Amino acid sequence: MSKLTEYTLEMYKADRRIKKDARYGKDKAGLRFYDALDLGPTTKDYVSTVVEAYQRRGFVVQVHETYVTRTNMMGGAKYQERYDTPYYCSPSSETYWSM
Fold first, then answer.
1. Nearest CA to 59 among 80, 86, 31?
2. Closest CA relative to residue 67, chosen from 88, 90, 49
3. Residues 58-71, buried b or exposed e (16+ Cβ, 10 A)?
4. How far apart are CA 38 and CA 27, in angstroms?
5. 74 φ, ψ to 5°?
6. Distance between CA 22 and CA 67 in Å, rounded?
7. 46: which of 25, 42, 62, 67 fits an S-S bond (Cβ 3.0–4.6 Å)?
8. Could you tell me whether strands 67-71 and 5-14 are parallel, antiparallel, or unpaired per DSSP bridges?
9. 41 and 23 in contact (C-beta within 8 Å)?
10. CB–CB of 92/71 below 8 Å?
11. What is the pLDDT of residues 45-81, one digit of tens each?
12. Do residues 3 and 9 touch, judged by C-beta distance below 8 A?
């Protein structure tokens, strides 16, 4: 049996209007952000099936584990936060503690 983990799928569509430049935030080189889909505790087999279904429809899909383990900078305790939490909002950064 496979381990159950929460995943987030980010879907992008090819778009010629977007310049191939990395400074456009979520919009990757020539790709327009379309949607993010949060999946509950599932297996990698199910996630790969969902990804293949979206890829057949013309999407570029990035798979992320929804929660990552980080270390609190001040106390040293481990905690979990979403993968897309901005650095300055994370207790694992000096910026968070200097505000």
1. 31
2. 90
3. ebbbeeeebbeebe
4. 19
5. -85, -45
6. 25
7. 42
8. unpaired
9. no
10. yes
11. 999 999 999 999 999 999 999 999 999 999 999 999 9
12. no
Place of tokens 């200097």: 98
The total number of residues written for the chain in this structure:
99
Picking from 48, 49, 19, 50, the residue whose alpha carbon sits closest to that of residue 35 is: 50
**Distance linking the first and last C-alpha atoms of the chain:** 45
Tens of pLDDT along 27-43? Answer: 556 788 899 999 999 99
CA distance 44 to 64: 11
State whether residue 63 is helix, strand or coil.
strand
CA-CA-CA-CA torsion for 93, 95, 98, 99, nearest 10 degrees? -120
